Amino acid sequence: MAGCTNCQSKRGCDHRKGDMLDAVDAALADLYPSRTWGPPRAVARGAGADGEAAALADDLAHELDAAVFVRPGEPADACDFLYVLCVGRPPCAVQVRDLGVAAPAEWRGATLSEAYLRVALSSLARMAVVQEVAIDVVADDDGGGWVMREAPRAGVYSAPMLRRFQRLVAILPAYDILHLDLGELSGPPAGYEPGAWPALYAGTPAITNYLFYPQPATMVSTTWLPAPARVAS
């Protein structure tokens, strides 16, 4: 694969990245005047507020010809999430895990692998990041429930998902939401202190941890769902 140095579009791409990084620097300076990771300064609403996430999900479902689900962020998150189902079919893992949908009967004894585009909509700024996420669902041997393992990647890499990803990114400006390249946010912001973050996760917080969610962007999460209350008859 040819590198960026020889790409004919490099100059335009570099310009867009420069604008993106300038916007990130401005948001960080506004949100963290102490230049330390921790609770941000109170700000105006970010992307996805006041039902905007649901409206965006509806538009994406139509434009991408895919099921899209809104998952509110946890209390520690500074974002809400949209999951675009790219591999799999409803009722899917996100619906069962997060939205109160009963697992279908065919899940008994089954192993499933699903793939999503996960959009994080910052509640601090009108910004979003998108990454590819795999969710595996594995039934235990005695039928007592399922283990769900969510594994995010540091971007979008699978060829079948790239077309939807490009269309998704093209829709965000209509909502005045700036798409940030996750790869450009993987390092710590220059001149900022990590605060309490190393005690929680070890290492140094990346820019994503200031603008979106506290956990590392590729941290795997595992959830156990018991079967009795979840399996539809």
Major sheet description: 7 strands, mixed
What pattern of helices and strands is seen along the backbone? Answer: HHEEHEEEHEHHE
Tally of separate helices: 6
What is the CA-based Rg, rounded?
Answer: 19 Å
Q: Spans of 5+ residues with little confidence (pLDDT < 50)?
A: 1-12
Strand content: 15-25%
Task: Assign the structural class, choosing from mainly alpha, mainly beta, alpha/beta, alpha+beta, or little secondary structure.
Answer: alpha+beta
- For the record, give the distance between the C-alpha atoms at the N and C termini, rounded to a whole number: 50 Å
User: How many structural units, i.e. domains?
Assistant: 1
* Secondary structure: number of strands: 7
Share in helix: 25-40%
- Average pLDDT confidence is 89
> Shape, please?
globular
Question: What this model shows, in words?
Answer:
- The chain has 233 residues and is of the alpha+beta class.
- It has one domain (7-226).
- 27% of the residues lie in helices and 24% in strands.
- The protein has helices at residues 10-31, 52-64, 93-98, 159-171, 197-201, 207-211, and strands at residues 68-71, 79-87, 111-122, 127-139, 145-152, 178-180, 221-226.
- Strands 1, 2, 3, 4, 5, 6 and 7 form a seven-stranded mixed β-sheet that branches.
- The protein starts with 9 loop residues before the first helix and ends in a 7-residue tail after the last strand.
What structural keywords apply?
233 residues; seven-stranded mixed β-sheet; globular
Provide a brief overview of the structure:
This protein has helices at residues 10-31, 52-64, 93-98, 159-171, 197-201, 207-211; strands at residues 68-71, 79-87, 111-122, 127-139, 145-152, 178-180, 221-226. Strands 1, 2, 3, 4, 5, 6 and 7 form a 7-stranded mixed beta sheet that branches. With 233 residues, the chain is α+β, with helices and mostly antiparallel strands.
